[in-house]
Design a protein that fits this description.
Layout: E1 2-4, E2 8-12, E3 18-23, H1 24-28, H2 37-48, E4 51-58, E5 61-69, H3 76-85, E6 91-93, H4 98-108, E7 112-114, H5 119-131, E8 137-139, H6 146-151, E9 154-158, H7 163-168, E10 171-173, H8 180-214, H9 218-221, H10 227-245
Parallel strand pairs: 6-7, 8-9, 9-10
Antiparallel strand pairs: 1-2, 2-3, 3-4, 4-5
Length: 255
Amino acid sequence: VRVIPGRGLSYTSSENTEYRIVSFDFIRQESSLEINEELISFATRHATNGRTLIAGVKDKEILWVMAAGDTLRKDAFQAMSQLHEMGIHTLLLTGDNHEAATALAHKVGIKEVHARLLPSDKKDIIQSLKSQGNRVLMAGDGINDAEALSSADVSVAMAKGSNLALDIASITLIGEQLSSIPFAIKLSRFTHSIIRQNLFWAFFYNVICIPLAAGLFFPFTGFTLNPMIAGAAMSLSSVIVVTNSLRISRLKFNP
């Protein structure tokens, strides 16, 4: 069995007969295959309804064509809406035909669609976005998403995704809820804000208190700090930093 990247599978029997299970768009590009009007009508009708066409081919003969559709996750629209509210631009990168991809994107509010992509095409688009100064998060769960996941600044894989995607992804969603993606972004932003606050507080506090405890102000003010009070002051700094960090636990995921 030979994998045709982003297209399907191919198998050559002992009688030298080639069997393929590939996307219908792929076989439409082959001039050697004759596709009748009935098949084209079938493909157009189902593609418009957001379904992907898969074909079985024996040498130069089309044996069958099947329409398969992806079921949207219940919270897909909610997740995309939250991302848009956060000012995040979303794109759909897929190997499916343009009609099916557009229909799916329309249901969840994604306006920019790139269809009929090979795995390398997805990677190129992400690298292009990064070269423009964008920070890119890629979410995917299939083998065909692996190259794109490895190219993104942050990669997210679903728990039931392929092993390759799970190995590459920097974040793995334990559940199947897409709304956990915007929550993860909110959590990371809030955590980054807390880190900056703690660094500022620790720097500001130590710049004042360490010289004071060392007696550097004594020649000018005649004031010295009791070592016990200085030790308590340093402990207080740690308590403030830890208490501020505990605010992160107040951020709860509400699916």
